[in-house]
Amino acid sequence: MGFTDRYIASIGSSNLMDDALHHQTDPLAAAALAGDIGALLCRVKYADGTLNRMFEGNQQNLAQLLRIWTAAVIEKGRARYWVKSEDIQIAHGLYKRVAESSLAHWLDSHCKKCAGTGVTALLGNRQCSACKGSGISEIIGMREYEKRLVLDMVSELTAMYDSHARRANSKLRTTD
Per-10-residue mean pLDDT for the chain, 176 residues long? Predict the structure, then answer.
């Protein structure tokens, strides 16, 4: 069982005890101890209801994550010269669109038409036409250049989360 699975299982823990026999919430503590933006990514994606939409999550966490991520995207955009330096108004709009779209796509990229399966059951289990069988929704409403930037930033978010998950997993107690 990977860290993400253990983290999700610990969210629904019915026993918050922490003794020699009870370690159900260890992944929550490990995620917090691993620090950095990864802990916030974990919390927003898995603990605040963003992924499963079963309840209304903590909107302050999402707002904080968006602020942090927007600042990071602005920094990356400037360092990578996405826009000429004299086009400040254009740059600000681009950075904001890329930050919002990449975070939204990373948080929930499942195709809505097939629910992320890649197959549409209504048409006799055929390949989903919206996602072409991948189960991942396409980024729409943006030019190709912006889509590439969004996908690049999604890969950055994935790398940040993966790094955080590795650090958190190393902090888990080995009681198995």
Answer: 72 60 66 78 76 59 92 94 81 94 92 84 77 88 94 96 86 58
Dist CA 158 CA 167 (whole Å): 14
Three-state secondary structure call for residue 146? helix
The neighbouring-strand residues paired with 120 are: 126
Which pairs with CB-CB distance under 8 Å and at least 24 residues apart come from 143-151?
146/94, 146/97, 146/98, 146/101, 149/77, 149/82, 149/94, 149/98, 149/102, 150/98, 150/101, 150/102, 150/105, 151/102
Q: Structure tokens of 79?
A: 């360092």
Q: What does pTM read for this prediction?
A: 0.78
Task: Give the closest residue to 90 by CA, choosing from 146, 148, 156, 138.
Answer: 146
What integer pLDDT is reported at residue 24 of this predicted model? 67
In angstroms, the CA 34 to CA 19 distance is 21
Beta pairing class for 126-127 and 119-120: antiparallel
**How many Å apart are CA 111 and CA 60, to the nearest integer?**
26
Q: Which amino acid would we find at residue 48?
A: D
Query: What's the token pair of residue 50?
Result: 């963003």
Contacts of 30 (CB under 8 A, 6+ apart): 3, 168, 169, 171, 172
Place of tokens 């190709």: 144
